[in-house]
């Protein structure tokens, strides 16, 4: 049975445009995979804490040396990682806030990047340990950035996912959402058409 993990990071929770696009995709995916499991994590409502020196110290400590507080931190991180590793398909709702990803999503990334657990350094460079996943990203923006140097979000998310072993990543964009209702309608329409294309394609049914 397939498992999908949906990570929403809009500060508007389920009302965010990125969440709505991700929800549309997930509904169609579910229809194509009856009986599949869908886990949803709303990073605005259920925030992952900031990574602090104490929390990072817990990651670095040897398991047998961890204090109860450090063990609680690594147990929490392990649970996020196990949830991620259990998924075949991962769906990210990705708003642009102040030229970058939401800090809620960054905090999540900071808790799933664990040496020896999700990546490891080898003599030939870093190797990601989270393999065999397909990721769909639903990116929403007030302005227009795709294909310009200001779109650091796309390369950052691709680089991060690649670092932990995930290379099959597909982006759907809805840009120009702050340029008035006509622009928002047109660009959300294009994103929804792209979702329609993705969810009727053979790769989705596979
Ligand atoms: C705090 C904040 C910061 C934003 N910063 C940007 C930005 O830097 N560039 C941009 O194009 N749009 C920006 N926007 C607009 C959002 O990207 C846009 O509203 C998008 O729909 C947000 O996704 P969401 O609806 O899923 O939350 C910002 C919106 C908010 C609330």
Q: What does the model show?
A:
This protein is an alpha/beta fold and 206 residues long. The chain contains 7 helices and 7 strands; from the N terminus they run E-H-E-H-H-E-H-E-E-E-H-E-H-H. Strands 2-1-3-6-7 form a 5-stranded parallel beta sheet, sandwiched between helices. It has a two-stranded antiparallel sheet with strand order 4-5. Strand 1, helix 1 and strand 2 form a beta-alpha-beta unit. Helix 1 packs parallel to helix 6 and helix 2 packs across helix 3. Bound molecules: flavin mononucleotide.
Low-pLDDT windows of residues: none
Order of secondary-structure elements:
EHEHHEHEEEHEHH
Count of discrete alpha- or pi-helical segments spanning 4 or more residues: 7
| Computed Rg | 18 Å
Q: Which small compounds were modeled alongside the protein? A: flavin mononucleotide
Q: Give the tally of β-strands.
A: 7
């Amino acid at each position: 049975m397939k498992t999908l993990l949906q990570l929403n990071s809009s500060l508007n929770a389920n009302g965010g445009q990125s969440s709505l696009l991700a929800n549309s995709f997930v509904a169609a995916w579910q229809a194509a995979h009856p009986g599949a499991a869908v886990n949803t994590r709303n990073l605005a409502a259920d925030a992952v804490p900031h990574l602090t020196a104490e929390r990072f110290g817990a990651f670095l400590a040897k398991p047998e040396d961890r204090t109860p507080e450090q063990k609680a931190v690594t147990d929490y991180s392990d649970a996020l990682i196990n949830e991620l590793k259990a998924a075949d398909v991962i769906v990210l709702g990705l708003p642009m806030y102040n030229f970058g990803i939401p800090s809620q999503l960054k905090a999540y990334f900071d808790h799933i990047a664990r040496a020896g657990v999700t990546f490891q350094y080898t003599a030939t460079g870093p190797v990601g340990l989270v393999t065999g996943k397909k990721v769909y990203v639903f990116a929403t923006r007030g302005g227009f950035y795709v294909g310009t140097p200001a779109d650091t979000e796309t390369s950052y998310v691709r680089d991060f996912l690649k670092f932990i072993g995930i290379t099959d990543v597909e982006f759907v964009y809805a840009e120009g959402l702050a340029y008035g209702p006509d622009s928002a309608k047109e660009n959300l329409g294009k994103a929804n058409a792209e979702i329609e294309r993705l969810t009727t394609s053979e790769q989705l049914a596979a």
